[in-house]
Amino acid sequence: MDSPVETLNPCRRQQLIEIMTAALRAVDPAEAVRRHLQRQGDILQVGGAHYDLRRFRRVIVVGGGKAGAPMAAAVMEILGDCVAGGAVVVKYGHTAPSGTWRVRFGHGDGVPASQEPLSLGPVELIEAGHPIPDAAGLKGAQRVLSWLRNLSAEDLVICLISGGGSALLPAPAEGLHLEDKQALTEMLLRAGATINEINAVRKHCSLLKGGQLARQAAPATLITLVLSDVVGSPLDVIASGPTVPDLSTFADAYAVLERYGLVEQAPASIVARLRQGMAGALAETPKPGDPCFKRVQTVVVGDNRIAAQAAAECARQLGFSTQVLTTFIEGEAREVARVCAALLKEEVQTDAPLPRPACLILGGETTVTVRGHGRGGRNQELALAAALALDGWPDVAIISLGTDGTDGPTNAAGALATGWTVRAGKAIGLDAAAMLSDNDAYRFFSALGDLIITGPTGTNVNDLILGLAWPG
After folding, report:
1. Angle 68-79/29-36 helices, nearest 10 degrees?
2. How far apart are CA 241 and CA 260, in angstroms?
3. I want to staple 462 with a disulfide (CB 3.0 to 4.6 A). Which of 37, 52, 97, 304 is the partner?
């Protein structure tokens, strides 16, 4: 069968756009904060806890993550007259208010319209690098640390944590330098290490991660609002758990380097620090029961499951049979792609596990072992591998979407794959298999106009995979 000009017809594309839009709206960071942080006069309610603001001398707002700007804006809306100051570090370009993004399919060659950065009054909004930490992030982390010095039991700190916080708050431990952390982060990412593994190492090379922000803030009261970007929302892993007890050890961190064969390649200063820690020459990160957690409350305000459920509800309203299969997807993007493709093949052959039209939803975060020299991200890589697995299969589509709006070092959030994607690429001289081998999914999907373009969404709750099958 000849490949159609388009890989998916406009009506079906519009359905996908509506489902993705519903998912992203459901995890709007400002709304998430407003749901969990409420004020009535001098009483601040956070989850089930209540705080009398008259007890506190100052309120300080600090944090780091891609969703930091809209989260901080919501806090200032609620507590503005009480806030003395603070600093929040966000990824470059992620300073706009909530709701300024729009989901579309495109070629990826355009630059999203610039937005006026939020004004947070006495709270500094600092832009920095992600996923590789940079000098701006180092400056931002130093500003956060400066606000945490000399606090007393009469102070209240509100800490805002979201995905990307680890890279955006680089505060190297004594004897380490930013260049060391940059080199190690890049090595671990290219090796395909999971976020849990990367963060175990980061926590033992930092002054803020692994509960150490709580140690710096004590004896102040500390409230942490978390927008989770980690599978299962383990608090000690999200942004390397700066305000909660750390369950990892120096030995765990060293084991990650061994697992990926990086002991000889990693910066010598980091390897030496981890060995010193294992030998007991350095203090461990704070563990459960540490006094620094006596006045700490942590609340997860949004996560991947909320986005997945919103996608499912929208798909139902569009007439699809829907099911959220899991929000615990992990593993190599190409392997996950083959599993997703297999599920859609089952739909086409047997109308199972759901009758068509069907929408199967998965959430989580995959990894990519980079062996080529192309450009892309884990979601685009997954989509290209899925396109190869689905080649020639009719009436199916797979979407892989990064909820923050940026997939890897690109301006795309992900990509669309169908049974005609590979053939459409071949018709314009692109070899899908060769480009996947070179980790060059961005260039492939850009040529087809099948990149998902949103611009920075202001949120970050992992990735969503939508598998759709229509009746033939």
Report:
1. 40
2. 23
3. 304
Task: From residue 142, give the alpha-carbon distance in Å to each of 137, 138, 168, 332, 439.
Answer: 8, 6, 11, 35, 36
C-alpha angle 241-286-160 in degrees, rounded to nearest 5 = 30
Q: What is the pLDDT along the chain (472 residues), one digit of tens a residue?
A: 344 447 999 999 999 999 999 999 999 999 999 999 999 999 999 988 999 999 999 999 999 999 999 999 999 999 989 999 999 999 998 888 777 889 999 998 755 555 677 789 999 999 999 988 999 999 999 999 999 999 999 999 999 999 899 999 999 999 999 999 899 989 998 998 987 899 899 999 999 999 999 999 999 999 999 999 988 899 998 999 999 999 999 999 999 999 999 999 999 999 999 999 999 999 999 999 999 999 999 999 999 999 999 999 999 999 999 999 999 999 999 999 999 999 999 999 999 999 999 999 999 999 999 999 999 999 999 999 999 999 999 999 999 999 999 998 899 999 999 999 999 999 999 999 999 999 999 999 999 999 999 988 989 899 999 999 999 8
pTM score > 0.90 for this model? no
Between CA 164 and CA 227 the distance in angstroms is: 11
Cα R_g (the chain), whole angstroms:
22
Whether the Cβ atoms of residue 31 and residue 78 lie closer than 8 Å to each other: no
Taking the alpha carbons of 442, 447, 452, 453 in that order, is the dihedral positive or negative?
Answer: positive
Taking phi first (over 0 means left), then psi (-120 to 50 degrees means alpha), and beta for anything else, what does residue 175 get?
Answer: left
Burial letters 369-385, b for 16+ CB under 10 A, else e: ebeeebbbbbbbbbbbb
Structural tokens at position 139: 């400056």
